[in-house]
Amino acid sequence: MTILVTGGAGFIGSNFVLDWLATCDEPVVNLDALTYAGNLQNLASLSGDARHVFVKGDIGDRALVDSLLQRHQPRALVHFAAESHVDRSILGPAAFIKTNIEGTFTLLEAARTYWSGLQGEARARFRFQHVSTDEVYGSLAPDAEAFTETHPFEPNSPYSASKAASDHLVRAWHHTYGLPVLTTNCSNNYGPFHFPEKLIPLIIANALAGKPLPIYGDGLQVRDWLYVRDHCSAIREVIERGRLGETYNVGGWNEKTNREIVDTVCALLDELQPDPAGPYSRLITFVKDRPGHDRRYAIDARKIERELGWRPAETFDTGIRKTVRWYLDHRDWVAAVQSGGYRDWVDANYTARAAAE
Ligand code: NAD
Ligand code: TYD
Question: For residue 339, what pLDDT is reported?
Fold first, then answer.
Protein backbone atom coordinates (compact mmCIF):
# COMPACT_ATOMS: atom_id res chain seq x y z
CA MET A 1 0.00 0.00 0.00
CA THR A 2 1.01 3.64 -0.54
CA ILE A 3 -0.16 7.06 0.52
CA LEU A 4 -0.04 10.26 -1.53
CA VAL A 5 0.85 13.36 0.48
CA THR A 6 0.56 16.91 -0.88
CA GLY A 7 2.74 19.68 0.57
CA GLY A 8 5.10 17.19 2.20
CA ALA A 9 8.10 19.51 1.92
CA GLY A 10 6.50 22.18 4.10
CA PHE A 11 6.54 22.50 7.87
CA ILE A 12 3.82 20.07 8.94
CA GLY A 13 3.93 17.90 5.81
CA SER A 14 7.64 17.14 6.18
CA ASN A 15 7.19 16.29 9.87
CA PHE A 16 4.32 14.02 8.85
CA VAL A 17 6.36 12.22 6.17
CA LEU A 18 9.30 11.74 8.55
CA ASP A 19 7.02 10.45 11.32
CA TRP A 20 5.13 8.19 8.93
CA LEU A 21 8.27 6.49 7.64
CA ALA A 22 9.68 6.26 11.17
CA THR A 23 6.62 4.35 12.32
CA CYS A 24 5.80 2.16 9.30
CA ASP A 25 7.18 0.98 5.96
CA GLU A 26 4.28 2.07 3.80
CA PRO A 27 5.71 4.21 0.97
CA VAL A 28 4.89 7.90 0.59
CA VAL A 29 4.53 9.74 -2.71
CA ASN A 30 5.11 13.39 -1.90
CA LEU A 31 3.71 16.01 -4.32
CA ASP A 32 4.98 19.51 -3.56
CA ALA A 33 5.45 22.59 -5.74
CA LEU A 34 8.41 23.79 -3.62
CA THR A 35 7.14 27.32 -3.15
CA TYR A 36 9.14 29.58 -0.81
CA ALA A 37 7.73 27.42 2.04
CA GLY A 38 8.75 24.04 0.62
CA ASN A 39 12.19 22.81 1.53
CA LEU A 40 13.71 19.48 0.52
CA GLN A 41 16.35 19.89 3.23
CA ASN A 42 13.59 18.97 5.69
CA LEU A 43 13.58 15.53 4.08
CA ALA A 44 17.34 15.13 3.72
CA SER A 45 17.36 12.19 6.16
CA LEU A 46 15.25 10.26 3.62
CA SER A 47 17.81 10.64 0.85
CA GLY A 48 18.22 7.24 -0.87
CA ASP A 49 15.18 5.81 0.94
CA ALA A 50 13.07 4.03 -1.69
CA ARG A 51 9.96 4.41 0.49
CA HIS A 52 9.88 8.15 -0.28
CA VAL A 53 9.09 9.29 -3.83
CA PHE A 54 9.28 13.06 -4.23
CA VAL A 55 7.47 14.72 -7.15
CA LYS A 56 7.87 18.44 -7.77
CA GLY A 57 4.55 19.70 -9.07
CA ASP A 58 1.41 21.72 -8.48
CA ILE A 59 -1.78 20.30 -6.96
CA GLY A 60 -3.61 22.37 -9.59
CA ASP A 61 -2.04 20.28 -12.39
CA ARG A 62 -4.86 17.81 -13.02
CA ALA A 63 -2.97 15.67 -15.51
CA LEU A 64 -0.09 15.26 -13.09
CA VAL A 65 -2.36 14.38 -10.15
CA ASP A 66 -4.29 11.89 -12.32
CA SER A 67 -1.10 10.19 -13.42
CA LEU A 68 0.24 9.95 -9.85
CA LEU A 69 -3.00 8.39 -8.64
CA GLN A 70 -3.05 5.89 -11.51
CA ARG A 71 0.61 4.98 -11.22
CA HIS A 72 0.85 4.64 -7.42
CA GLN A 73 -2.73 3.55 -6.57
CA PRO A 74 -2.62 5.15 -3.09
CA ARG A 75 -5.00 4.01 -0.36
CA ALA A 76 -5.10 7.57 1.03
CA LEU A 77 -4.48 11.12 -0.12
CA VAL A 78 -3.31 13.38 2.74
CA HIS A 79 -3.70 17.01 1.70
CA PHE A 80 -1.38 19.51 3.40
CA ALA A 81 -0.42 21.69 0.40
CA ALA A 82 -1.54 25.27 0.92
CA GLU A 83 -0.50 28.85 1.12
CA SER A 84 -0.43 29.09 4.90
CA HIS A 85 0.77 32.48 6.14
CA VAL A 86 -1.89 35.01 7.21
CA ASP A 87 0.39 38.03 6.71
CA ARG A 88 1.25 36.92 3.17
CA SER A 89 -2.46 36.47 2.46
CA ILE A 90 -3.04 40.09 3.44
CA LEU A 91 -0.29 41.41 1.15
CA GLY A 92 -1.15 39.07 -1.75
CA PRO A 93 -4.33 36.98 -1.56
CA ALA A 94 -4.36 35.65 -5.16
CA ALA A 95 -2.08 32.68 -4.51
CA PHE A 96 -4.34 31.63 -1.61
CA ILE A 97 -7.39 31.49 -3.85
CA LYS A 98 -5.46 29.56 -6.48
CA THR A 99 -3.84 26.91 -4.30
CA ASN A 100 -6.18 26.61 -1.33
CA ILE A 101 -9.46 26.76 -3.23
CA GLU A 102 -8.79 25.89 -6.88
CA GLY A 103 -6.01 23.44 -5.99
CA THR A 104 -8.21 21.61 -3.49
CA PHE A 105 -11.00 21.51 -6.09
CA THR A 106 -8.62 19.92 -8.60
CA LEU A 107 -7.49 17.32 -6.06
CA LEU A 108 -11.07 16.48 -5.13
CA GLU A 109 -12.02 15.95 -8.76
CA ALA A 110 -8.95 13.83 -9.43
CA ALA A 111 -9.59 11.80 -6.27
CA ARG A 112 -13.23 11.33 -7.24
CA THR A 113 -12.33 9.98 -10.67
CA TYR A 114 -9.68 7.68 -9.19
CA TRP A 115 -11.89 6.42 -6.35
CA SER A 116 -14.84 5.84 -8.70
CA GLY A 117 -12.64 3.50 -10.72
CA LEU A 118 -11.55 1.45 -7.70
CA GLN A 119 -13.21 -1.86 -6.88
CA GLY A 120 -14.02 -3.81 -3.74
CA GLU A 121 -11.58 -3.52 -0.85
CA ALA A 122 -9.49 -0.79 -2.52
CA ARG A 123 -12.57 1.38 -2.97
CA ALA A 124 -13.82 0.78 0.57
CA ARG A 125 -10.42 1.60 2.05
CA PHE A 126 -9.65 4.86 0.19
CA ARG A 127 -9.53 8.08 2.23
CA PHE A 128 -9.16 11.77 1.31
CA GLN A 129 -7.74 13.44 4.45
CA HIS A 130 -7.97 17.26 4.32
CA VAL A 131 -5.72 19.16 6.72
CA SER A 132 -7.28 22.44 7.83
CA THR A 133 -7.09 25.06 10.53
CA ASP A 134 -9.02 26.41 13.52
CA GLU A 135 -8.85 29.84 11.86
CA VAL A 136 -11.91 28.97 9.75
CA TYR A 137 -14.04 29.51 12.89
CA GLY A 138 -13.02 33.16 13.28
CA SER A 139 -12.26 34.98 16.51
CA LEU A 140 -13.49 34.18 20.05
CA ALA A 141 -14.41 36.56 22.86
CA PRO A 142 -12.16 36.15 25.94
CA ASP A 143 -14.76 34.19 27.91
CA ALA A 144 -16.37 32.27 25.01
CA GLU A 145 -16.36 28.47 24.86
CA ALA A 146 -13.61 26.92 22.75
CA PHE A 147 -14.40 25.98 19.13
CA THR A 148 -16.25 22.70 18.70
CA GLU A 149 -16.74 21.07 15.29
CA THR A 150 -20.22 22.64 15.04
CA HIS A 151 -19.04 26.22 15.58
CA PRO A 152 -20.08 28.42 12.62
CA PHE A 153 -17.42 29.34 10.07
CA GLU A 154 -16.55 33.04 10.38
CA PRO A 155 -13.15 33.41 8.67
CA ASN A 156 -11.61 36.88 8.83
CA SER A 157 -8.42 36.77 6.76
CA PRO A 158 -7.88 35.86 3.11
CA TYR A 159 -5.99 32.80 4.39
CA SER A 160 -8.76 31.57 6.69
CA ALA A 161 -11.46 32.37 4.10
CA SER A 162 -9.62 30.31 1.49
CA LYS A 163 -9.22 27.40 3.93
CA ALA A 164 -12.90 27.65 4.91
CA ALA A 165 -13.82 27.48 1.22
CA SER A 166 -11.67 24.38 0.80
CA ASP A 167 -13.31 22.76 3.85
CA HIS A 168 -16.73 23.41 2.31
CA LEU A 169 -15.65 21.86 -0.98
CA VAL A 170 -14.40 18.75 0.82
CA ARG A 171 -17.68 18.46 2.71
CA ALA A 172 -19.70 18.88 -0.48
CA TRP A 173 -17.71 16.20 -2.33
CA HIS A 174 -18.67 13.79 0.44
CA HIS A 175 -22.34 14.68 0.57
CA THR A 176 -22.82 14.94 -3.18
CA TYR A 177 -20.51 12.30 -4.58
CA GLY A 178 -19.88 10.08 -1.56
CA LEU A 179 -16.12 10.70 -1.67
CA PRO A 180 -14.69 9.21 1.57
CA VAL A 181 -13.32 12.40 3.12
CA LEU A 182 -12.09 13.35 6.58
CA THR A 183 -11.18 16.86 7.75
CA THR A 184 -9.03 17.97 10.67
CA ASN A 185 -9.11 21.56 11.97
CA CYS A 186 -6.01 22.14 14.04
CA SER A 187 -4.66 24.98 16.12
CA ASN A 188 -1.24 26.68 15.73
CA ASN A 189 1.57 24.17 15.34
CA TYR A 190 5.17 24.66 16.43
CA GLY A 191 8.29 22.50 16.29
CA PRO A 192 11.17 21.53 13.96
CA PHE A 193 11.25 22.83 10.36
CA HIS A 194 8.86 25.71 11.10
CA PHE A 195 9.53 28.43 8.53
CA PRO A 196 11.11 31.42 10.30
CA GLU A 197 8.48 33.94 9.23
CA LYS A 198 5.97 32.44 11.71
CA LEU A 199 5.97 33.73 15.29
CA ILE A 200 7.98 31.15 17.27
CA PRO A 201 10.84 30.46 14.81
CA LEU A 202 10.98 34.16 13.93
CA ILE A 203 11.46 35.10 17.58
CA ILE A 204 14.19 32.46 18.04
CA ALA A 205 16.04 33.49 14.86
CA ASN A 206 15.80 37.22 15.56
CA ALA A 207 16.86 36.82 19.19
CA LEU A 208 19.96 34.84 18.21
CA ALA A 209 20.78 37.51 15.61
CA GLY A 210 20.28 40.35 18.14
CA LYS A 211 17.39 41.76 16.08
CA PRO A 212 14.10 43.24 17.37
CA LEU A 213 11.40 40.75 18.43
CA PRO A 214 8.24 42.18 16.80
CA ILE A 215 4.96 41.78 18.69
CA TYR A 216 1.89 42.91 16.74
CA GLY A 217 -0.44 45.34 18.55
CA ASP A 218 -0.71 44.76 22.31
CA GLY A 219 0.41 41.11 22.03
CA LEU A 220 -2.59 39.92 24.03
CA GLN A 221 -4.02 37.85 21.16
CA VAL A 222 -4.51 34.24 22.22
CA ARG A 223 -3.66 31.12 20.23
CA ASP A 224 -3.79 27.44 21.16
CA TRP A 225 -0.42 25.81 20.45
CA LEU A 226 0.22 22.17 19.52
CA TYR A 227 3.58 20.46 19.03
CA VAL A 228 3.73 19.45 15.36
CA ARG A 229 4.36 15.74 15.98
CA ASP A 230 1.13 15.62 18.01
CA HIS A 231 -0.71 17.01 14.99
CA CYS A 232 0.88 14.25 12.88
CA SER A 233 -0.26 11.53 15.29
CA ALA A 234 -3.79 12.96 15.25
CA ILE A 235 -3.89 12.85 11.45
CA ARG A 236 -2.69 9.24 11.48
CA GLU A 237 -5.50 8.29 13.88
CA VAL A 238 -8.10 10.07 11.76
CA ILE A 239 -6.95 8.36 8.55
CA GLU A 240 -7.15 4.94 10.17
CA ARG A 241 -10.25 5.25 12.32
CA GLY A 242 -12.05 8.53 11.66
CA ARG A 243 -15.70 8.39 10.67
CA LEU A 244 -16.22 9.25 7.01
CA GLY A 245 -17.42 12.78 6.31
CA GLU A 246 -16.62 13.93 9.85
CA THR A 247 -14.44 16.82 10.94
CA TYR A 248 -12.17 16.56 13.99
CA ASN A 249 -10.78 19.52 15.92
CA VAL A 250 -7.17 19.02 17.02
CA GLY A 251 -5.55 21.14 19.71
CA GLY A 252 -3.08 21.17 22.54
CA TRP A 253 -5.15 22.62 25.41
CA ASN A 254 -2.46 25.34 25.53
CA GLU A 255 -3.98 28.79 25.22
CA LYS A 256 -1.27 31.44 25.39
CA THR A 257 -1.04 35.13 24.59
CA ASN A 258 1.62 36.11 22.09
CA ARG A 259 3.41 37.97 24.88
CA GLU A 260 3.57 34.77 26.93
CA ILE A 261 4.97 32.92 23.93
CA VAL A 262 7.68 35.50 23.35
CA ASP A 263 8.54 35.68 27.07
CA THR A 264 8.80 31.88 27.27
CA VAL A 265 11.08 31.67 24.22
CA CYS A 266 13.28 34.49 25.60
CA ALA A 267 13.56 32.77 28.99
CA LEU A 268 14.53 29.45 27.39
CA LEU A 269 17.16 31.15 25.25
CA ASP A 270 18.48 32.97 28.34
CA GLU A 271 18.94 29.55 29.93
CA LEU A 272 20.28 27.59 26.95
CA GLN A 273 22.23 30.24 25.02
CA PRO A 274 22.74 33.29 27.26
CA ASP A 275 23.59 36.54 25.50
CA PRO A 276 26.37 38.53 27.23
CA ALA A 277 24.54 41.70 26.15
CA GLY A 278 21.62 40.88 28.50
CA PRO A 279 18.26 39.09 28.57
CA TYR A 280 16.71 38.51 25.15
CA SER A 281 13.50 40.21 26.30
CA ARG A 282 15.35 43.54 25.91
CA LEU A 283 14.79 43.07 22.14
CA ILE A 284 10.96 42.94 22.36
CA THR A 285 9.40 45.65 20.16
CA PHE A 286 5.69 46.37 19.84
CA VAL A 287 4.81 47.06 16.19
CA LYS A 288 1.72 48.02 14.21
CA ASP A 289 -1.01 45.40 14.47
CA ARG A 290 -2.07 42.97 11.72
CA PRO A 291 -5.24 44.23 9.96
CA GLY A 292 -8.26 42.18 11.04
CA HIS A 293 -6.12 40.40 13.64
CA ASP A 294 -8.18 37.61 15.27
CA ARG A 295 -8.17 38.10 19.02
CA ARG A 296 -8.50 34.54 20.25
CA TYR A 297 -8.58 30.95 19.00
CA ALA A 298 -9.26 28.00 21.31
CA ILE A 299 -9.89 24.39 20.38
CA ASP A 300 -12.20 21.93 22.08
CA ALA A 301 -10.51 18.64 21.16
CA ARG A 302 -12.84 16.35 23.08
CA LYS A 303 -14.38 14.71 20.00
CA ILE A 304 -11.11 13.26 18.71
CA GLU A 305 -10.24 12.18 22.24
CA ARG A 306 -13.63 10.54 22.80
CA GLU A 307 -13.93 8.82 19.41
CA LEU A 308 -10.31 8.00 18.61
CA GLY A 309 -8.56 8.15 21.97
CA TRP A 310 -6.09 10.80 20.73
CA ARG A 311 -4.35 13.12 23.20
CA PRO A 312 -1.25 15.23 22.66
CA ALA A 313 1.94 13.65 24.02
CA GLU A 314 3.67 16.99 24.68
CA THR A 315 2.77 19.74 27.10
CA PHE A 316 3.65 23.26 26.01
CA ASP A 317 6.62 23.23 28.40
CA THR A 318 8.13 20.05 26.96
CA GLY A 319 7.34 20.94 23.34
CA ILE A 320 8.70 24.47 23.41
CA ARG A 321 11.91 23.32 25.10
CA LYS A 322 12.44 20.69 22.39
CA THR A 323 11.71 23.31 19.74
CA VAL A 324 14.17 25.90 21.05
CA ARG A 325 16.85 23.21 21.37
CA TRP A 326 16.15 22.07 17.79
CA TYR A 327 16.66 25.60 16.46
CA LEU A 328 19.88 25.99 18.47
CA ASP A 329 21.12 22.68 17.00
CA HIS A 330 20.05 23.51 13.41
CA ARG A 331 21.33 27.00 12.77
CA ASP A 332 22.49 25.88 9.31
CA TRP A 333 18.91 25.02 8.40
CA VAL A 334 17.72 28.50 9.42
CA ALA A 335 20.60 30.21 7.59
CA ALA A 336 19.82 28.27 4.39
CA VAL A 337 16.14 29.19 4.58
CA GLN A 338 16.91 32.87 5.11
CA SER A 339 17.59 33.30 1.40
CA GLY A 340 17.18 36.38 -0.76
CA GLY A 341 13.47 35.68 -1.17
CA TYR A 342 13.04 35.53 2.60
CA ARG A 343 14.79 38.87 3.03
CA ASP A 344 12.39 40.45 0.51
CA TRP A 345 9.49 39.21 2.63
CA VAL A 346 10.93 40.62 5.85
CA ASP A 347 11.27 44.02 4.16
CA ALA A 348 7.70 43.90 2.83
CA ASN A 349 6.12 42.85 6.14
CA TYR A 350 8.07 44.77 8.75
CA THR A 351 9.24 48.01 7.13
CA ALA A 352 5.66 49.29 6.92
CA ARG A 353 5.00 48.34 10.55
CA ALA A 354 7.76 50.46 12.14
CA ALA A 355 7.94 50.32 15.94
CA ALA A 356 4.68 51.35 17.65
CA GLU A 357 4.87 54.28 20.08
P1 NAD B 1 3.75 25.45 4.86
O2 NAD B 1 3.47 26.77 4.22
O3 NAD B 1 4.94 25.30 5.74
O4 NAD B 1 3.88 24.32 3.73
C5 NAD B 1 3.03 24.28 2.62
C6 NAD B 1 3.65 23.32 1.59
O7 NAD B 1 2.76 23.25 0.48
C8 NAD B 1 4.99 23.81 1.06
O9 NAD B 1 5.91 22.74 1.01
C10 NAD B 1 4.66 24.30 -0.34
O11 NAD B 1 5.76 24.18 -1.25
C12 NAD B 1 3.50 23.41 -0.72
N13 NAD B 1 2.62 24.02 -1.72
C14 NAD B 1 2.11 25.28 -1.71
N15 NAD B 1 1.37 25.48 -2.81
C16 NAD B 1 1.38 24.31 -3.52
C17 NAD B 1 0.77 23.88 -4.71
N18 NAD B 1 0.00 24.69 -5.44
N19 NAD B 1 0.99 22.62 -5.13
C20 NAD B 1 1.78 21.77 -4.41
N21 NAD B 1 2.40 22.13 -3.27
C22 NAD B 1 2.19 23.38 -2.83
O23 NAD B 1 2.41 25.07 5.63
P24 NAD B 1 2.22 24.21 6.96
O25 NAD B 1 2.33 25.11 8.12
O26 NAD B 1 3.05 23.00 6.88
O27 NAD B 1 0.68 23.84 6.81
C28 NAD B 1 0.29 22.64 6.14
C29 NAD B 1 -1.22 22.55 6.14
O30 NAD B 1 -1.69 22.55 7.48
C31 NAD B 1 -1.92 23.72 5.45
O32 NAD B 1 -3.00 23.23 4.73
C33 NAD B 1 -2.37 24.61 6.60
O34 NAD B 1 -3.52 25.34 6.25
C35 NAD B 1 -2.65 23.58 7.65
N36 NAD B 1 -2.51 24.02 9.05
C37 NAD B 1 -1.36 24.67 9.45
C38 NAD B 1 -1.23 25.05 10.79
C39 NAD B 1 0.03 25.72 11.30
O40 NAD B 1 0.08 26.13 12.46
N41 NAD B 1 1.09 25.83 10.50
C42 NAD B 1 -2.25 24.80 11.70
C43 NAD B 1 -3.42 24.14 11.24
C44 NAD B 1 -3.52 23.76 9.92
P1 TYD C 1 1.60 33.33 13.00
O2 TYD C 1 2.78 32.51 13.43
O3 TYD C 1 1.73 34.14 11.74
O4 TYD C 1 0.36 32.33 12.94
P5 TYD C 1 -1.24 32.67 12.75
O6 TYD C 1 -1.42 34.06 12.29
O7 TYD C 1 -1.64 31.66 11.74
O8 TYD C 1 -1.86 32.44 14.11
O9 TYD C 1 1.24 34.31 14.17
C10 TYD C 1 0.91 33.81 15.46
C11 TYD C 1 0.51 35.02 16.29
O12 TYD C 1 1.67 35.84 16.48
C13 TYD C 1 -0.54 35.90 15.60
O14 TYD C 1 -1.43 36.39 16.60
C15 TYD C 1 0.27 37.04 15.03
C16 TYD C 1 1.44 37.17 15.98
N17 TYD C 1 2.72 37.65 15.40
C18 TYD C 1 3.40 38.71 16.01
O19 TYD C 1 2.96 39.27 17.02
N20 TYD C 1 4.58 39.12 15.45
C21 TYD C 1 5.09 38.55 14.31
O22 TYD C 1 6.17 39.00 13.82
C23 TYD C 1 4.38 37.46 13.72
C24 TYD C 1 4.90 36.77 12.48
C25 TYD C 1 3.19 37.03 14.30
Answer: 77
Global pTM exceeds 0.70: yes
- Fold of the domain spanning 3-191+225-253+296-314: Rossmann fold (3.40.50)
Q: What is the pLDDT of residues 312-321, one digit of tens each?
A: 999 999 999 9
Active site residues: 134-135, 159
Distance in angstroms (rounded) separating the CA atoms of residues 85 and 197:
8
Q: Pocket of ligand 1, candidates 11, 54, 333: which has the most ligand atoms within 8 Å of its Cβ, to mutate? A: 11
- Domains of the chain by residue range: 3-191+225-253+296-314
For residues 86 and 290, what is the distance between their CA atoms, to the nearest angstrom?
9
CA of 176 to the centre of ligand 1 (A): 27
pLDDT tens-digit series, residues 69-92: 999 999 999 999 999 999 999 999
Asked if 5 contacts 28 with a C-beta cutoff of 8 angstroms, the reply is yes
Beta bridge partners of 59: none
- The per-residue pLDDT for range 104-138, each reduced to its tens digit, is 999 999 999 999 999 999 999 999 999 999 999 99
- How much of the chain, in percent, has pLDDT values that exceed 70? 98
SS3 state at 274? coil
CB of 215 sitting under 6 A from ligand 2: yes
Kindly report each contact of residues 118-126 with a partner whose C-beta sits within 8 Å and lies 24 or more positions away, as own/partner.
122/73, 122/75, 125/75, 126/74, 126/75, 126/76, 126/180
DSSP per-residue letters across 158-226? HHHHHHHHHHHHHHHHHHHH---EEEEEE-EEESTT--TTSHHHHHHHHHHTT--EEEETTS--EEEEE
Quick check: 357 pLDDT over 60? no
Helix, strand, coil shares of the chain as percentages rounded to 5?
Answer: 50, 15, 35
**CB 223 less than 6 A from any atom of ligand 2:** yes
Over residues 235-243, the mean pLDDT reads 98
